[in-house]
Amino acid sequence: SPSYERYAALPKAHLHVHLEAAMREDTMRQWCGEDGVEVPPLVEFPDFTRFLDAYGLLIALLRTPERVARLLDEVVADAAAQGVVAIEFASIPDKSAAFDTAEDALEFILPTAAAAGRRHGVWTGAIVSIDRGAGPAHALEAARLAARFAGRGVVAVGLVADERGNPVAGAADAFSIAREAGLGVVPHAGELAGPEEVRSALDLGADRIQHGVRAAEDPRVVEMLASSGVCLDVCPSSNVVLGVYPSLGDHPLPALLDDGVRCSIGADDPLLFGVDVVDEYVLAHERMGISEARLAGCARASIDSSFAPAALKRDAL
Ligand code: ADE
Ligand code: ZN
């Protein structure tokens, strides 16, 4: 549609996207066929656990380095077609069956992503996701792993999976390790849990917050976000599919922007939620009433809030 073309042409950074779930649908179907496994459910999930199960099925398809390389090439090619000049993809390297160790996974993924970036003209950075359900030892190990790859393609640590029962404060020590290595800290918070988790993420020195939208339930937390300039990496369709809000019309992104909170727009898990990052801009305009000028501001905020090099930001902004 004309609208899609318009928002695709806007230079932007995609800061909230999980690598495995950015797989193309055709590629997924091909690999499911080759492996003789069922195609995972898409777009409709009875609950968050069933969503994580579908995500696990995508990870299971990535059982050879060749598949991982194809995934990276396609994700970066798609990003280029979406006007993405910088992509920060999140991944849980210790879940990869294609490699013996998480270290091996990153040794392969980082240069392969960088090469894809050069081919397609997109800057790439990796976020090492800590699985918040996997306990404190995993969190420290993931942070130490990420730290060893600081300056070699890893730009930050993230924190993913179900917030309920696993508060962000549990990752405080892991975040310290990341920060000492010069990495960013970009946890998921304020998605399945409320504004207190966004406040907690801010207290822990988060550089950005993935989702963070439930901050809207507490004006004091909204004010903390606005005055700090910490960017929320917002994914409206994800929030609707996972039942955080009943519809896009109920989503707080317009209110957060009105209140001066910096927000980038992302697709989170494009294959599982049936949207790419450009679709999210179009929906924000058409279904959430956000003006084109304000969405251009989100695109600028995404580039400015990214971990991309200063020279790229200067050229793109
Ligand atoms: N991992 C992938 N997508 C996620 C989401 N929306 N929330 C938490 N963890 C995730
Ligand atoms: Zn996410």
The gist of it:
The protein is of the alpha/beta class. The protein has helices at 2-8, 25-35, 48-61, 65-81, 102-120, 135-148, 172-180, 195-203, 219-228, 236-241, 253-258, 270-273, 277-286, 292-304, 310-316; strands spanning 12-18, 84-91, 123-131, 154-160, 184-189, 208-211, 231-234, 263-265. The protein has a single domain (2-307), classed as Metal-dependent hydrolases (TIM Barrel, Alpha-Beta Barrel).
How would you characterize this protein structure?
It is built from 15 helices and 8 strands. An 8-stranded parallel β-sheet has the order 1-2-3-4-5-6-7-8. By secondary structure, it is an alpha/beta fold. It has helices spanning 2-8, 25-35, 48-61, 65-81, 102-120, 135-148, 172-180, 195-203, 219-228, 236-241, 253-258, 270-273, 277-286, 292-304, 310-316; strands at residues 12-18, 84-91, 123-131, 154-160, 184-189, 208-211, 231-234, 263-265. The protein has a single domain, classed as TIM Barrel (Alpha-Beta Barrel), CATH 3.20.20.140. Bound molecules: adenine and zinc ion. Zinc ion is lined by residues 16, 18, 188, 210, 268. Belongs to the metallo-dependent hydrolases superfamily. Adenosine and AMP deaminases family. It comes from Dietzia psychralcaliphila. GO terms for molecular function: deaminase activity; hydrolase activity, acting on carbon-nitrogen (but not peptide) bonds, in cyclic amidines; metal ion binding. Residues 11-317 form the Adenosine deaminase domain. This is Adenosine deaminase.
